[in-house]
Amino acid sequence: MPKGSNVAVPTTALRIELGWRAGPAVPDADASALLLVSGKVRSDADFVFYNQPAHPSGAVRHEGKRTAGGQVTDTLLVELARVEPAVETVVLAASADGGSFGQVPGLYIRVVDDRSGTEVARYDSSDASVETAFVLGELYRRQGAWKFRAVGQGYSSGLEGLATDFGITVDEPPHAPPPVPLAPPATTPSPMAPPVTVPPPVNAPPPPAAPPSPVRLTKVTLTKAAPAVSLTKQGGTSGAMRVNLNWQVRKQFTGWAAKLGRPVAMHADLDLDLCALYELSDGRKGVIQSLGNAFGALHQPPYIHLDGDDRTGAATSGENLTINLDHQHAFRRILIFVTIYEGARSFADLHATVTLQPQHGAAVDFSLDECTVPSTVCALALITHQNGDLVVHREARYLVPERGVSPQRTVDHAYNWGMNWTPGRK
């Protein structure tokens, strides 16, 4: 599509793919969406991006990145049937991290029917230069139907400039505190008057509600080249940290995985289980998993809780662990891993994204690499104390269990956890 053109959208379930070619000097990019009424958001909740991956209505959600064959895609899912009637436009944007869009080759946006896989529209951007944020397209209502328009409008002020332009309140870095004034010369104190008690006013109005928290745009993406981050240095060592795993199945039915050279079954009822091995500072060890209903506890040891068992992989729910960082000194190490419970024989043709969202500090996310081995268990992230720092290390390590050995025992052996395992079920 040329810039400025539009096309009717014949379906309501859409997959929006932002894509580009990867390379050693190519900046990372992130897809986002803004739901607008009269050209502005109604609140910060109308902004969907990596730190706020789902709209409250469920109409838009951020699915995460996938890298394959030198091509990177970041995906948004849009359910037009769930877009509230007041919303007139869904802006589809992108922001560059570590450079400008002039350094991003092959930048495009695709609108795909999520049910059939048919491409509805595609716009290739070829004129980007110094822009660090881009509105690539928009979905808009026209006479009761939805259309897609190729926009191609850039911002040199990055994601913050794009967001504030549409009415988002952005959490800016704190300014340096003002200098403390010198104390005045000491004087002889005058006699104190007796305290006066003032009765409260009758029918006093309630105090004004606190303003909503501004949107935080900062994030940390872990890669092979930069696989670790200190939560301590990011200010994220208190409150609840949510760990989310979401995934996409590229093949819904049994097919061939060329790199494995044999059939690999992928079914719609794929069930992945997010798990965690923990070792506390007092030496106690254990596992958090739905198998055996070992869901843990948030306010008592081990201070880790598994929310439930999800089979969809949606970013709005997915598999979630919560870690109570108010007790971070009770942790010696935590290994977050995922197993395939049923529905597939390996992680081939499966794309997963992991997001660690501390209550305070920047979000930490990463995608799993393409799986080329018959693996049913993947170590995702290792959280340890190192020289007083609480550090998250990206593992993204596919493991292949030996015949008759469970995935849990396999990951235990790989990381020398030293636990005894018995069969379990859920």
TrEMBL record:
Taxonomic superkingdom: Bacteria
UniProt region (Disordered), positions on chain: 173-213
Species name: Streptomyces bluensis
Compositional bias ranges of the Pro residues kind: 175-213
Transmembrane spans: none
Species lineage: Bacteria, Bacillati, Actinomycetota, Actinomycetes, Kitasatosporales
CDD domains: TerD_like (cd06974)
Residues in the signal sequence: none
Coiled-coil parts of chain: none
Family: Belongs to the CAPAB/TerDEXZ family.
InterPro entries xref list: Stress/Tellurium_Resist, Tellurite_resistance_TerA, TerD
Domain TerD: 2-166
Full protein name: TerD family protein
